[in-house]
Amino acid sequence: MKALAAFSVARAVDSNNTNMERSKLIQVGVGAKTSPDHDGLSVSTEAVRKSSPQISLSLSKNGTVTWALLVMAFLALVRPVASEAAIRYVDSSVSVSGNGQSWATAWKQISNISGVAGGDTVYISGGPSGSSQTYTFSQSWAPTIGTPGNPITYKIGQDSAHNGTAFFSGPAVTFLAPGVDDIVISGDAGDGQMHFSIANPATGVSPWSSLFVTTQDAQRVRISYLNCGYLGTSGVTEIVFLYNAGIRNIELDHLFIKANGWTTLDGVFKFYNVAAGLGYDQGVFIHDCEIWTPYVPRSGSGSDCVQTGGSASGITLSNNVFIGWDGGGSGHNGSSAQHTDGFQIVGGNYIKVVNNYYFNMVNLVYTGFAGSHTFSHHIIANNVWMDGGWGDARYAIEYLAESGAYTLEDIEVSNNTLYHNPGSPSILFKNAGTGLTVNNVRVRNNIYNSSLYLSPTVGAITQVGNMQMTDAQMTAAFVNFQKNNTNGNFKLKAGSTPIGAGANLSSVFAYDKTGVARPASGGWDIGAYQYGGAVSSPVAQLSTSTIDFGSVRVGSNATATITIKNAGVGTLAGSASVSAPFSIVSGGTYSLGSDQAQTVTLRYSPTASGSSSQTVTFTGGGGASALAVGSAWMTLSGLSFPSSAGTVTAPFVVSGSSVSQSSQTGVADGGKAVYGFTIAQAGNYMISADVSAPSAEANSFYVNIDSTPTEQMVWDIPIASGLVTQNVTWRGNGVEDATSPSGFGAEFSPQVFNLSAGTHQLIIVGREAGAALGTITIAPYARPNPPQNLRVVTTNP
Fold first, then answer.
1. What is the tally of helices (H) and strands (E) in the chain?
2. What is the pLDDT of residue 11?
3. Which residues of 593-611 are buried (b: 16+ CB within 10 A; e: fewer)?
4. How many Å apart are CA 415 and CA 466, to the nearest integer?
5. In 3-state terms, what secondary structure has residue 473?
6. HEC string of 354-371?
7. Is residue 533's pLDDT more than 80?
8. What is the DSSP letter of 645?
């Protein structure tokens, strides 16, 4: 049997706190997991992760969010599920494929799945606990997708007769096909282990070439508790490659990937232009994963754990283990192999790298590239970085203006614990090009063993609370200091010098790497860990601070969940309560031992259109609370209605019979107006509206049907004073055009929507101040008739 070097991690596990419905408000220290705190991690050789791999990774802290105006990440924190959702079953052991309505009548193969819709759950059998079953694909999996707020969930069977390992076997192509939205693929059986696998359970080698590669839009996708084993084949450059500005709200968690050392591999995760223009946490969220990336024997680009480029935005890495390895003997010396970076930021803003452990990497973060670049809004905090002793490590955190001019804005590098063999700086900000301009760059409370190189040419960098320590000093300060391996424990001993010696950064974040609260006043402990944190009583800890049900039709309802955990000792006994239009469905009374968790299910049942919010109160363990929020919309009569008739939210305001806003915004922060309508006959439809577009700075909205618009769905309106009826167009890839009445050429004119019979939502989002919306009409689209009776006319020269 082929063996795989992997972490043997002994630690407490919150196996229930793994739902897509937990918080996406990832702040530094929030979402800190018990893996790995480096309270004695050891690397050992063990059989490749099989049906019950011993990687137990979970988020263990989602405390109070202290960042002002933190943007909701990925999804609206929780997944709402329609009340009519169905449960279906797939089991490859049945003799004949059935109707999928029970285990006894299960579908036999994944390809037999049919008739599922948004909100449905499809359970896939892995056979009895401890065994495995195989499902064979002939091509990339293109699962049926759900709808915004109602994903289709593909999940491992939950009972002992079906919660073994489901092995998805296939050809040497990408596992997940492009073009997916609103799905959850989860091998979580509630025990913290990965019960879905694309790696052969017998060999640990994956037949697939990569996991997920797309240049198409992809939104609201979660891939979770999946063992990828040895993954990657010759010619593959990325394991996960997402390249489109319309990609957002992607969650990748509890994955194990050991990328093969092919000479073509450029990075395990590569994100270009993802969530362009959006803020923190709205692009891709990678957490609780163990990723091994090889040193690649070639010149050029190295094999990085994560790489971003273009205008990528909203990338968050939290609570992961990243390890550099020799790629199966391909070599690791810098003279013969490319180095591995933990995070190579070729381009990207609104990036968080928090609570991670890095071993044997050349860099934790690296931004040295040719040309001129601007990097803004980066948070690098609470990470542990340990050199592997191979001699390739250069700088832990490196912002290098290699050539051209660099601009750095709002960069936070704080409370990291960094060790590498001396010889080069631990943290470097340097101008090696034509210029480096900094604005609001902070380097604070870091422990490091080599040096800081903060070039005087870069201007003012805030430096406070950093501590350089020798090996001897680290041995005295840490519980178990060991270098060049993963066996160390970098938590602080009683009385060690970093305790209380740092600056208080409570205005920025509140927790350490393991979720221990840092003090609201007084000096902080330097490095990734706050000393102590021991408790002697139960502590109520919630998986999210906000439970967002999204948009729900009046008269229907949606459910969502939140997890409460006893993060202390003893028994946490209490109950949850909330006022209408929200209610507790199940799990509202709990009695939890230390580190036990329970899911609480809530329902939102709106009776009138508009927004709703209520506090969900949890008793016991010092108490805790979360905010339940949702918005409701009604189905309007007919296909023509005033803009004021929908569910209108700020910064949109209703004035008389029109809707407008007074500020320029993007998709994420614009006013939103939602209109429910019913189509009697399926077909192609177009939208027109009475609009006022008084100037080139006040003549656009975002428009879409059945999902929130993207940046490409801009309706540029011909400039005209007063309300004028105009057809909705989409700019798409159109460019400025001085001959166009709107100032832009529209790629889609008019924009035609193919609609099924039934109820739909028209969603209009504000973009420019002063553009006003009046009566809206939805009508069938009739393709213009071709010209008739054409004649060819010739003339004599």
1. 1, 59
2. 24
3. ebbbbbbbbbbbbbeebee
4. 8
5. helix
6. ECCEEECCCEEEECCECC
7. no
8. G
pLDDT for res 13: 25
Distance CA 680, CA 683 (A): 10
d(CA 35, CA 289): 9
pLDDT digits (tens, 9 = 90+) for 482-523: 887 777 789 899 899 999 999 999 988 899 998 889 999 999
**Cβ proximity of 642 and 737 under 8 Å:** no
Residue 358, both tokens: 């890095």
Residue 117 CA to residue 84 CA, distance in Å, equals 10
Q: Which of 544, 568, 388 is CA-nearest to residue 24?
A: 544
Q: Read off the tokens for 100.
A: 């999928």
Structure tokens at 74: 């990925």
Residue 48's nearest CA partner among 204, 218, 191 is 204
Dist. CA 8–CA 253, nearest whole Å: 19
Residues 132, 136: Cα–Cα separation, whole Å:
13
Q: Which amino acid appears at position 570 of this protein?
A: G
pLDDT digits (tens, 9 = 90+) for 698-729: 999 999 999 889 988 999 999 988 899 999 99
Q: Are 344 and 381 in contact (CB under 8 A)?
A: no
Answer left, alpha or beta for residue 506, where phi above 0 means left and psi between -120 and 50 means alpha. Answer: alpha
Q: Which structure tokens are listed for 585?
A: 């469905």
Question: Beta 772-780 vs 683-693: how paired, if at all?
Answer: antiparallel
The amino acid at residue 406 is: Y
C-beta separation of 286 from 320 below 8 A: yes
Instruction: Report residue 112: phi and psi, to 5°.
Output: -80, -10
Kindly tell me if the per-residue pLDDT of 306 is higher than 80.
yes
Rounded-to-integer distance, Cα 342 and Cα 384, Å: 12
Beta-sheet strands, E only, within 39-129: 42-47, 81-82, 87-90, 121-124
Q: What gap in Å lies between CA 380 and CA 624, rounded to an integer?
A: 28
Residues 85-89: contacts with CB under 8 Å, at least 24 apart: 85/119, 85/120, 85/121, 85/150, 86/116, 86/117, 86/119, 86/120, 86/121, 87/120, 87/121, 87/122, 87/123, 88/113, 88/116, 88/120, 88/121, 88/122, 88/123, 89/122, 89/123, 89/125, 89/157
Which residues pair with residue 480 across a beta bridge?
A: 489
Kindly state the DSSP code that residue 622 receives in the 8-state scheme. T
Q: List Cβ neighbours of 101 (8 Å cut-off, separation of 6 or more).
A: 88, 89
Strand partners, 468: 448
Weakest-pLDDT range from 24-28, 266-270, 408-412, 714-718: 24-28
Tens digits of per-residue pLDDT, 104-121?
999 999 999 999 999 999
Q: What is the CA radius of gyration of the chain?
A: 27
Q: Is 111 helix (H, G, I), strand (E, B) or coil?
A: helix
Strand partners, 65: none
Q: How far apart are CA 571 and CA 595, in angstroms?
A: 10
What are the φ/ψ torsions at residue 357 (nearest 5 degrees)? Answer: -120, 130
End-to-end Cα separation, the chain, in angstroms: 86
* The token pair that represents 412 in the structure block: 């936070």
* Enclosing H/E stretch for 589: strand 589-592
**H/E segment holding residue 378:** strand 373-381
Report whether 624 contacts 592 (CB < 8 A).
no
Length of the chain (residues): 797
pLDDT of residue 360: 82
In whole angstroms, give the CA distance from residue 652 to residue 672.
7
Q: CB within 8 A of 152, min separation 6: which ones? A: 116, 117, 118, 119, 120, 121, 122, 143, 144, 145, 146, 182, 183, 184
Kindly provide the b/e burial profile for residues 310-341, where b requires at least 16 CB atoms within 10 angstroms of the residue's own CB.
ebbbbbbbbbbbbbbbbbeebebebeebbbbb
Per the prediction, the chain carries an average pLDDT of 82
How much is the average pLDDT of 590-615? 90
